[in-house]
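Journal club prep — side note

Before the paper discussion, L.F. wants everyone to see what a predicted structure for a comparable chain looks like in token form. Sequence:
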Amino acid sequence: MLLKSSKINEFRLWGLLLTMGGMLIMIIGLAGVVFDWGAVGRIIAVIFLILGMISMLGSMAIYFWAGMMSTSAVALDCPECGKRTKMIGKTDRCMFCKTILTVDPSMAPAEAEISDEGNIRQPETGSAPTAIDSSKS
């Protein structure tokens, strides 16, 4: 569970990795010019700068996509930590405490009880609590 996070945060992570990777590729490409390798160095620099630019454009596309999904995501309060979080799809994780959440009552555990706010709360048995959005019903 250490490496699990919400879907929106996963998209943002991949965007950040592409940004950092693209910048690293461009810096490596500049070695051909900085160390004065002549015509071969300039060709290496051009190739690596183009690859880095493609990586940066991919990062921009992923960030745009994550932003568009974030605007249409269901916002709800996490029953575990109480913070407002967004979820994509039927199941997702809390952005803060990484608790598994759901908006589908059929996916909720059988022993869970539904409160007045529409949150499904697990009894203290150690299993992960889930939540549903009451505005959808």
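L.F.'s comment for the group: The helical segments are 7-29, 31-34, 38-71. Keep this in mind when we get to the figures.
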